[in-house]
Amino acid sequence: MSSMRLINRHPGRFSAIALGLIPFVILILIYGMASHERLAENPNDKLLPGLEQMTAAVERMAFQEDKRSGNYLMWEDTVASLERLGMGIGIAALMALVVGILNGTLPLFRANMAPLVSAASMVPPLAILPILFIVFGLGELSKVMLIVIGTAPVMMRDVAQRVRELPQEQFIKIQTLGANSWQVINRMVLPQILPRLIDTMRLSLGPAWLFLIAAEAIASTEGLGYRIFLVRRYLAMDVILPYVIWITILAIIIDQCLRLTNRKLFPWYNAGGH
After folding, report:
1. Domain that residue 29 falls in
2. Is residue 57 included in any domain, yes or no?
3. pTM value?
4. Residue 213 lies in a domain
């Protein structure tokens, strides 16, 4: 009888895909009907553009040279944003790896640095955005630093926690074999923490995009966030919606690339049910 309970019913592969697609199809249908109704009343309505208007906007932004700059704006914005995002997440991940491992393995270092990391992780990054612009200027550095400050402390805490979750028996065995502190970190801790760091990077992507778009909206001359906030004054939803969809697609692609990297480099980690 228990096998008939809902909690014991698992969808097959194709059923899971179909079930996952249903909410998206429903949302698209609802939007399509609402858009059709508004455009039927007012063909110049800008709030809910139809597929035709959005396709025309994408063609204009992505496949036609801008008359002023001669660039393809959507691709120029994409490259600028991805460069900032990559630098920010990359620097944050490196800092998280170093500080997180030291916090997790060395009690003296943890006593010294853990309170600062905890305090830094509680600071709302957007609250210090004006300070970053004053200190680092309105160029690329301030945008990258916002991503670093917004994601690094949380990633440091997560890495340190993962280090402390490693079985204590491993630390005892490797030290019994004569390993010093550097060898414990390099040979035992680091290989086990790298796949967990990639997981932490995946979780930090959402906040990183938020900080990036906020920084671009305030001070930038190109970027996905900059373009969205530039065209909002014209109520250009035919540009804004495709840009939002494009950002979502990019985020999914980056997340899946990190997931596949983890699977390829650390098959043992994924085999353990992670």
Report:
1. 2-48
2. no
3. 0.86
4. yes
